[in-house]
Amino acid sequence: MPDTRCERRGLVSGLLVARVAAIVADALDQPPERVHLHSSLIDDLGAESIDFLDIVFRLESTFGIKIPEEDLWSGSVGATADPAIIAERIVELRQRMPAFAWDRMPAAIGREHLPRLITVQTIVDYLERRGIDQGGEF
Amino acid sequence: MIVDADIVITGAGAVTPLGHTLAATRAAICRREVAFAPATLFDASGFRESRAAEVRGFDAREHFRFPKAIKLTDRRTRFAVAAAAMALTDARWSGSSADHEQLAVVVGTSASDMQAGDLARALVSSGGENFVADTRAFAGRVLDRLNPLWLLVNLPNMASAHVAIQLEARGPNSTIMSDWAAGVQSIGEAADWIRAGECSAVIAGGADSGIHPFAYGGYEQAGLFDRAHDGEPALGAPPSIRTLVAPASLPAAFVPGEGAAMLFMESASRARQRGATVIARVVGSATRAGAPEPTMAAAERVIEDVIVEAGWGDGRPITLAGSLLPAPAQERDGLALRCGADVRRLDLRCQLGHSMACSGVIDLLVAIASADTERLLCVGAGHSGHVAVVAVERCPTHAARGAAS
Question: I need a surface site. Which of A57, B221, B281, B402 has the fewest CB within 10 A?
Answer without folding.
Answer: B221
